[in-house]
Amino acid sequence: MAIIINIDVMLAKRKMSVTELTEKVGITMANLSILKNGKAKAIRFSTLEAICKALDCQPGDIIEYKSDEA
Questions:
Q1: Is residue 42 part of a domain?
Q2: Which of 34, 35, 42, 44 has the fewest other C-beta atoms within 10 Å?
Q3: What InterPro entries would the database entry show (predicted)?
Q4: Residue-range definition of the domain harbouring residue 49
Q5: Structurally, how many domains does the chain consist of?
């Protein structure tokens, strides 16, 4: 099972910097980096909601599932 985090893609589409996103969401650069790099074990719904609001997107635009079988 592979969960892919596409925050970089959405940041590029919205022409937004990582710093700007951290300020809008209210999380640290370190925590956003952990999430962005796929190292996070979990994400709070409130954080996901804030990211979606800041990037004007849906959770499915940020989080993707890819089967290992493919």
A1: yes
A2: 42
A3: Cro/C1-type_HTH, Lambda_DNA-bd_dom_sf
A4: 3-65
A5: 1
Residue 12 lies inside a defined structural domain of this protein: yes
Nearest to 17, CA basis, from 42, 25, 44: 25
Tokens of 1: 């099972």
Q: What tens digit of pLDDT does each residue of 18-67 get?
A: 999 999 999 999 999 999 998 999 999 999 999 999 999 999 999 999 88
Domain with residue 34: its CATH number is 1.10.260.40
70, part of any domain? no
CA-to-CA distance for 44 and 37, rounded, in angstroms?
16
DSSP string, the chain: -EEEE-HHHHHHHHT--HHHHHHHHT--HHHHHHHHTT--S---HHHHHHHHHHHT--HHHHEEEE-TT-
